[in-house]
Amino acid sequence: MLIYLPIAEVSVNAFVLLGLGGLIGLLSGLFGVGGGFLMTPLLMLVGIPPAVAVATGANQICAASFSGVLAHWRRGAVDFRMGGVLLAGGVAGSFVGVEIFELLTALGQVELMVSLTYVLFLGVVGGLMLIESLGAMIRARRGTAPKRRQRRRGWAHKLPLKMRFRASNLYISVIPPFLIGALVGLLSAIMGVGGGFIMVPAMIYMLGMPTAVVVGTSLFQIMFVTGVTTLLHATQTFTVDIALALLLLVGGVTGAQVGARFGMKLKAEQLRIGLALMVLAVCLKIAFDLVATPAELYSLAAAP
C-alpha cells in the first residue's frame, strides 16, 4: 500500500515504514538504544531524502526518549542537574548544527555530508562495540572477570566553574558536560540522532558518572535536544514529515514491546555483537553507495 509523503515528496509503501519503525523499536527493546543512528540511514536506503530523514528521525527519538525518562525517573535514576548542564550545551549545539545543515542544503552538499558522517561514526562505533563484545565473550568462556574500573580524579575535576551533582555524587567543572552536550546537539541536527551512543560512554569514562544514573540522564538530555532540533527543522528547513513520523512511531511502539521480551532471553554479549554487526552492515552499505556507479548518471535540479 503506497502512501504519499507530502514533505518528502515521494510515495513509499506504508508497510515498509511500519516495518522500519518496528525494527528500530525491536532494537530499542533488545539493546536499550534509541536507534536514531540506524533510523536515518535506513530511511535513506528506502528512498527518503536525507534532509527529511534527519529531521523526522529526530522527532521519533524525542518521543521514545520521553517514555524512557519517565521509567527511569520513577526509579530515581535521573540526575536532573547534570541533565540541565548537558541540555544547555545540547541546545547551543543544535542551533549551530541547524545553521550548518541549512548552509549545506543551500550548497547542495547535505546528502554527501550526512552520508560521510554516518560512514565515519557507524564504522567507529560498530568496530569498537564488536571488539569489546568479542573480548567480553572470550573472558566469559575463560572464566576471567574483567578488571574493575577505579574511580580517580581526572581533567574534569581540575577545570574551573565547579558544581556539585548530588545524584551522581560528583563535584566537577560544568565545562566538560556542556561540551559533551554541545557535540550531541550538533550531531542531532546534522545526523538526526539522539547521540546516546556517544554521550553514554562519555558520561561514564570522561565524567565518572555512576552507570545507574547515566541512561536516564542521557535520555533526559536527548528528549529536549531532539525536541528542539525537530522544532528548528520544522520552522527553518521545513523538512519534518508528520505522516512519516506517525507511521514510524506506530511501528516503533509495537516493536519495542516484542524486543523487550526477546531481550530477556539473550546474553548481554550476544546482544552487543548482534547490534555491532548490524551497525557495521549499514555502514558498509552507505559506503558502497558512495563509491558505486549510480543508476542515473545525471539529474535535473533547479538553479539557485
From TrEMBL:
Per UniProt, the keywords (alphabetical) are: Cell membrane, Membrane, Transmembrane, Transmembrane helix
Q: Which GO terms describe its cellular component?
A: plasma membrane
Task: Give start-end of the signal peptide.
Answer: none
Q: Where in the cell is it found?
A: Cell membrane; Membrane
In its keyword annotation, does this UniProt entry include S-adenosyl-L-methionine? no
User: What's this protein's family per the entry?
Assistant: Belongs to the 4-toluene sulfonate uptake permease (TSUP) (TC 2.A.102) family.
The protein depicted here goes by the name Probable membrane transporter protein
> TM segments?
12-39, 51-73, 85-104, 116-140, 212-232, 238-259, 271-288
InterPro entries per the UniProt record, alphabetical: TM_pro_TauE-like, TSUP/Inactive_protease-like
